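S., here's the first fold you wanted:
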Amino acid sequence: MRLSSDRAAEWPGSYLRWINVPKAVRTFFSVLLYVVLASHLLFWAFIGWRLMTVPENHSSLDIKTFNALSYGLLGLAIVVALTRRAFYVPAAAAVLALASLGGVHYLDRNNLMLQYETWISRGMPEKGAPAKIDSGR
């Protein structure tokens, strides 16, 4: 049996979407997604600016706490994708959240941005020096 063009265009939403969600709830989650997405972009703009202008690789900011916001954005993107017909913005938000998780891991592993206590405990490595990985031996 062949799907009609209307049903084929709505495929992800037609089978997975929460149908009886009030419009106010959908709007709330959509606005919240845009706010969290904007905060993500501002955070990465700040990190890029800081990496280019500040020679030190340590600060009082623990970049790993940003992972909580990334997981929140990922969950929010899934909720919005299930409550809206168009899923391109939530898909882009989910990709950004996953890229943010990878970016935070990269910044940490290459000692590009560390919390001060972590920087001290790692032996005050230079900016960009790969982290020494304990092999457990």
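And the second, which I think is the more interesting of the pair:
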Amino acid sequence: MNPDSPSPVIHYHPTLFFRGATVFLALSTVYLGSEVWRTGDFFVILFFITVLIATAGMALGSLASATWDGQTFSYRVPLRPLRTLTSAQIIDIEIVGRRTRALLIHYHPCDEQGHIDRTQELFLNLTPLQDQIELLLCLQGEEETPSADA
């Protein structure tokens, strides 16, 4: 690959397991909704609202997408602002979680002028992504971005 040519943009999406868990939680929410309708019990309503909020969060997460072009990482979740990080902003990256392992990116944000603010540190917790080990290695600079012809 020619070093002067731009790196291809690689897209990452949530794992099928995460999307399946979201569907299961949505079905559970529908069942709890029917129980609320049937019983009207305060604790069932409270539990339903809690599960409904968790389902909404997981549903948005299952529609997330990430891209890496060799220099810039972008993470988009519906109804949330686009997060764009350059490799210079990234401090550390970890894989966290027990059952569903996901990337946690520790980074310096940019100020209003677009300069990296090294006095602040933020975290970006991603949903479990397909090929996230490859993404982890690319973000850490340990692996070259795969070429478009590969």
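Why I say that: The radius of gyration is 19 Å. Residues 22 and 58 are 6 Å apart (CA to CA).

Talk tomorrow,
H.
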